[in-house]
UniProtKB/TrEMBL annotation:
Keywords: Hydrolase, Metal-binding, Nuclease, Nucleus
GO molecular function, one term: metal ion binding
Stored Pfam families: DDE_Tnp_4
Protein name: Putative nuclease HARBI1
Organism: Cyphomyrmex costatus
Length: 367
């Protein structure tokens, strides 16, 4: 396979030969087994190739074990160990470490690409379908009527996972998942090293915020749309500008799911292995997102010269996938201070921060 052209290899492994060799150099030492007098161990390159193929193809463990002529239980153990090794090796350098300068760089990307100043990420949660664990009852049964675990992710303007929380039970509410997660606790406790509020124009000074949909509560660090009933024109403009920025979260999850097709069907492994699979694919997504193979111009949503969103190829398959869905809506209760911050952004988008195409977009949606 490696002797064939890069495109053929990529279609099989979801990465180029050079990237596979790089990944092997990082993970290999952790998955190399000692040789004994009884039998020779499976080499690390085979272990890694087996795992990557399992994640990329979506084939069952029985099929993978037959292809590599090993027992199913052995294949299961190898895949779990390799996924854990990928997470242990890559997550410290692949995922974001909160710092003031780091947040500022992310905010500059959002302002440049999506015209939303002081935005430090788009947050979203997705249900990953699983086979009901033994004796779990309705613990993992969600409102969409399938069993799932939730991945909650803060993503960048360039479709990278910044911070993730993995493994919440599907039955939990969205607000509870965020508030009880380590990520959410750090935001609520002001422990994310966010920069101080800064001016986005001569008249407007706002804190750094994350953008979210209706599944999250409005507060001083999270902006969500205005409720969809009886909106003023200015509120519709704000909702459009926020949704335009938040689209990166949909793109990120869609690219992730479509590339690592093991996620397109219910995971039939143990909860520990399922968590390891999700963690490994998150790291692999970030590792490969900058390669020309991984995120082509036609795959992700693009922004045209006049600011319009041109839908990518991922939507044709992702919209029809029942295993993944947005988590449920949150109540619209919020503090007066949070409402003032949202109103400040709205005023900015109607004046100094206005983009030429926003009114046409709103009027077109009203037709």
């Amino acid at each position: 396979m490696i002797l064939q052209n890069d495109e053929t290899y990529f279609n099989y492994m979801r990465m180029t030969p050079d990237m596979f060799e790089y990944l092997l150099s990082k993970v290999g030492p952790l998955i190399t087994k000692m040789e004994t007098n009884l039998r020779k161990p499976i080499p690390p390159d085979t272990r890694l190739a087996m795992t990557i193929r399992y994640l990329a193809s979506g084939d069952g463990l029985h099929s993978i074990s037959l292809n590599y002529r090993i027992g199913r239980s052995t294949a299961t153990l190898i895949i779990r160990e390799t996924c854990e090794a990928i997470w242990d090796c890559l997550s410290p350098e692949i995922l974001f470490t909160p710092s003031e300068n780091g947040w500022r760089k992310i905010a500059l990307e959002f302002e440049k690409r999506w015209n939303f100043p002081n935005c430090i990420g788009a947050i979203d949660g997705k249900h990953v379908a699983i086979i009901c664990p033994k004796k779990a009852g309705s613990t993992y049964y969600n409102y969409k009527q399938f069993h799932s675990i939730v991945i909650l992710a803060l993503v960048s303007a360039t479709y990278k996972f910044l911070i993730v929380d993995i493994g919440a039970q599907g039955r939990h509410s969205d607000g509870g998942i965020f508030k009880n997660s380590a990520m959410g606790q750090r935001f609520y406790n002001n422990d994310m090293y966010l920069p101080a509020p800064s001016a986005i124009s001569a008249r407007h000074q706002v804190p750094y915020v994350i953008v979210a949909d209706e599944a999250f509560q409005l507060n001083s660090f999270t902006m969500r749309p205005y409720p969809s009933k009886n909106l003023t024109f200015c509120q519709r403009i704000f909702n459009y500008r926020l949704s335009r920025s938040r689209i990166v979260s949909e793109n990120t999850f869609a690219i992730w799911v479509n590339r690592w097709r093991i996620l397109q069907r219910p995971l039939s492994t143990s909860l520990e292995t399922s968590d390891a699979i999700i963690k490994a694919t998150v790291c692999l997504h970030n590792l490969l997102i900058n390669t020309s193979y991984y995120c082509g111009d036609n795959y992700a949503d693009k922004v045209s010269a006049n600011g319009q969103i041109m839908e990518g190829e991922w939507r044709s398959t992702y919209r029809n996938t029942d295993n993944y869905s947005n988590i449920s809506h949150c109540s619209n209760n919020y503090s007066k201070h949070a409402g003032e911050i949202r109103n400040t952004f709205m005023d900015y988008f109607m004046n100094e921060g206005k983009v030429p195409w926003q009114e046409q977009s709103i009027q077109r949606n009203l037709l």
